[in-house]
Structure formats: C-alpha cells, structure tokens
Amino acid sequence: MINRKILINTFQHLSEVLSSYPDNDTFKTAESENPWFTPEFSSFAFKAIAQAITKDKVVDFYHKNDYPFPKNPKSVGLAMAGNIPLAGFFDLMMILLSGNKAIIHKSHADTIFPHLIVNELFKITPALKSFIFFSESLKDVNALIASGSDNSAMYFSYYFKHIPHIIRKNRNAVAIINDIKKIDFHSKQGLADDMLLYFGLGCRNVSKLYTTDKINENQFTGFIFDLVEPYRYLSKHINYANNYLYQKTLFTMNEIKFYDNGFILLVPAHKIHSPVSVYHFQFLSNEEATCEEIEKNRDSIQCIATEKGYLAGSIPFGKTQQPELWDFADGINVMEFLAKI
After folding, report:
1. CB-hemisphere CA count at 13 Å for 108?
2. pTM value surpassing 0.85
3. Residue 149: per-residue pLDDT
C-alpha cells in the first residue's frame, strides 16, 4: 500500500542518496553511452534533484497540491527526453505523488539513469514495484506525459490525441540584462551556468539574451565573453567543438553577423531557440519593451532569468537548472492534470 507519508519518506531517502552519489563508474558508463552526459554534468543533475526533493519541500508541495489519491490508480505513460541527465525525473515523481502508475518509455540517449533511479526507489520502498514499469510501448496507457523536440511532439499529438496528455515541444530560457556594470560576480557566474550547464542542451538553459543597457554590441558581447570564460574547457569536448565549428562555418558562408570568442558564438537575432554553442542577443529600449517581446514569444520560453530574480515570475541567475517541485515545465501543473484523468 502506498500513501503520502510513505512517498514523502521515500523521496527524503532518495534525496540523501543522490546528494552524496559518488562520481563512479556509473557516470562514466553513462558518458560512454552518451558523450554529452559528462560525469560533471551528471553529478550536477543528481545534486540538483536532491536539493529539490527534501522532506520539507515535498511536504510543502503536497500542502499546495492537495489532490486526493485515486481509488483505482491509472497508468500514465511517460516518454522521457534524453537531452540532459534524468530529464524526466520530476514527471515520474509527480505521477507517483499523485498515486498513479508510471509506464516509462526511456529515451535512447538516457537508458542508464532512469533504471538507476527506479532501482533506488525500489530499494527504499519495495511496494513501488507495483507502480513503476518500463515499456517500449505506451499504447495501453490512460494518459501521457511526453517531452521532446517539435518533431516528436507532432508524433505524440497524433497517436495519443484520444487520451489526456501533456506534450512538450522545444523551449528555452531567456535572460534579461539591464546594467552590466551593476551585475556582481556571483550573478555573472550564475548566468554562465544558465547558459552552458549541460552544454546548453536543456530546455531551461538560456539561449537568448535581452539587454536594455545603453551600450554597443562590442561592449555587450565582451561582457558575455568574460563571464563564460570558466567554461572554455568545453571547447575540448569533441561533440561540442564540432557543433561550434559547424555553426561558425554556416554563419561565415551565409554572411550572418556573429561574435566569436573561440567556443561560443553570439548572434544578434530575434529568435529564442539556438543550436549548441550559439546564443542570440537583442537590444531593447526599456523593460516594458522587453516584457512585450517576451510575451510575444511566450510559447517558446521555458523560464526567465534575471539578476537576483528582480522581475516578478523570473528566476535568479544561476538557478534555471535547479528547478523546484513547483517550477512546472511549460507552466502546466502536472499534479492538477493527473487529478483529472
């Protein structure tokens, strides 16, 4: 039998396990399967999850999402993304917290960590073996939660249109920079993390930079190049370096303006999404114009990063890849969704 007290204690224990998980052969094995999953970034993902699922936070989350357990648990299909390590963890957690069953379809890019997490959950609470299953097929599920690319979203939308679903497409974070002279060292470091953790592959990674500062492009790009310098080591990663060189070649051949520091490319553009190693930037006259621009692109934006989270609804620099339980992807309350299936 599963109840809220058991689940709260389960995730408390899991938090303790993940917070001290060693940089061992498991991380190296994951990297051999997917070179984007470096031990450094995998370790960060584990610790970020650990800090989000402490007992106090899970209890607080339950109080704010007080939905009754279903008398008959439903089977919820979970199509996990593989862009960053354990990308589908919070969806799995929501399914369990709602009292339903998770039918997991792993991404081919992340086959090791989902099994690792589930095995840890089974060790802590063996009764969960009746609530978590892996499957290559999701055809018999009662509802679906799927994350992936715009192309995969089209597939999921077509084949699962007959059941309740949450289907997520490409999104990215944006950052608002007002006055480069007033941003402290900690915030600079945090913005660099928001841009380059996981090589920038996460939907919560900053891909677009807005500024209202009265400076020129050389000053702005110089500021960004300075703050990302601690991540220059990424240029030694073969996959990342190949992407950087490919994008640089494309921009050069197509005569697209860009700024280059040897491992990232800054491009003046209105677009939100950008490929690996590329970051778009845009000058706007004031904060009101920035908010209007963001609103126009709301469906492409996962979250907004600002210095110390000064703007209502924004996240402080350095926190985009450390979401809390209530930071629902695409702004959709998954617990509320699950309560209605």
Report:
1. 0
2. yes
3. 87
Task: For the chain, state the CA radius of gyration.
Answer: 21
Q: How far is residue 97's CA from residue 287's CA, in Å, rounded to a whole number?
A: 39
Q: Strand, coil or helix: what is 165?
A: strand
Contacts of residue 215, Cβ cutoff 8 Å, sequence gap at least 6: 180
Determine the Cα–Cα distance for residues 324 and 85; give it in Å rounded to an integer. 17
Domains of the chain: 4-169 (3.40.605.10), 172-316 (3.40.309)
Instruction: Specify burial of residue 233 (Cβ count, 10 A radius: 0-12, 13-18, 19+).
Output: exposed
Residue whose C-alpha is closest to residue 197's, from 228, 239, 241: 228
Name the token pair of 183.
Answer: 């941003």
The two structure tokens encoding residue 157: 């939308």
Beta bridge partners of 190: none
Six-digit token pair at 15? 């938090």
Q: Which segments in the chain show pLDDT lower than 70?
A: none
